[in-house]
Amino acid sequence: MNFLWDIALRAQVQDRAEEDMFFCQAEEFSPFYEQAFSCLNETDLPEGKIELNLFIRFASIFQDILAREEETPSVFGEYLTDAALHTLLYTDLRQGLSKRDIYIRKLRQELEQGIFWRDAAGVFREIPMAERNRLAALALTQMQTGSSLMIFRRGVKVLFPDAVLYQIREERKKLLLYLSGNRSRQREERLCLVQDLFLPLNYELRTFWKYHFGIIGVDDAMHIDEIAIY
Description:
By secondary structure, the protein is an alpha/beta fold. It has 8 helices and 7 strands.
């Protein structure tokens, strides 16, 4: 975590809102790093002001402001520096982004805001940022190619990496889903979110929690007192 854009991405992972970050010039800093944390290998954002070395990349923009601030410090100059850095942040974050990346971010924001359907927005916002981005990427793929069982399977795997999805051979529209671990309200809500987003119409899904249904010939599925009835 070194550059301004890197710090902003780390803030997203930690669910820190951009407006809660206050950028300023550090009093003590390394000439080789843009961030000025007390630990060079810091992985978490500190609380309060985020100090930077603005002379590495932004000297032409801030050198006059910082020179005046050094002579006569002012609240206005401090807030002006912060506002300018937030403006630069948008350009910094978009360096190297493809059109698809921008679409994915926009879709994620719309899902968070409940533009598609309001009831699921709260559930979606509780999911870690990395998984939100992956679900938004799948949503974009679905919009471009249409719904499919493969996209639904990937969506389930994002939130439930150990999930096992079965398709009944005689009835292809019927699916069986096994999820290890106990059933809980949060897990149910997340599964419903994935179903609503990605499960193709006319498919039926039956979910087994904690205990797998028995499969003759598969020893791991035939443990006594650990077999779900199907």
